[in-house]
């Protein structure tokens, strides 16, 4: 008997939950293959608009050297538990291929999310690695575990890969909606004024002030980056 398929709207909800969890993650566990056995390390991820993960790693670390020998790896991120039981935490496990990245946009993305790293990111032993998912498993709560379609974890449409449009929308928000950004930051636990949009993707954006970065999710995925301005003006954000 063929396995029962979940309705498409439920699948869409699960993929969206997984995307939002990944994009909001500021820490994760990276598993690598070291001397024929798995080894695990704490990493601080950032997520590109198209859904790949970038991390800053040092060649002095054993897990980095292991990745250079064998690029197969896994990454797990999790959210806060819904109850006292830690097993109620939502979590996403990705199976990935890793590669060193010299792309300026990957480095820019990482430092936008982790600005404190600017103090050491320029050291010669540090480099950006891009983790490209080839498999994904999400647990969103009791009886809500699913193997995901990695192609649906992030959009691949041309409109949402247009980085010039992304930068233009960010500039417009920072130049014309400063007071609104401060209001949004306050709703998400930020204090003071002068918050700026430091990263934008189809699912939300990140507000930065000094070394603090706050994640803000949109109520729905963007169709084009210009919609971010409409969402901000209309208050169409979570939280």
Automatic annotation (TrEMBL):
<dbReference type="InterPro" id="IPR037119">
    <property type="entry name" value="Haem_oxidase_HugZ-like_sf"/>
</dbReference>
<dbReference type="InterPro" id="IPR012349">
    <property type="entry name" value="Split_barrel_FMN-bd"/>
</dbReference>
<dbReference type="GO" id="GO:0005737">
    <property type="term" value="C:cytoplasm"/>
</dbReference>
<protein>
    <recommendedName>
        <fullName>Pyridoxamine 5'-phosphate oxidase putative domain-containing protein</fullName>
    </recommendedName>
</protein>
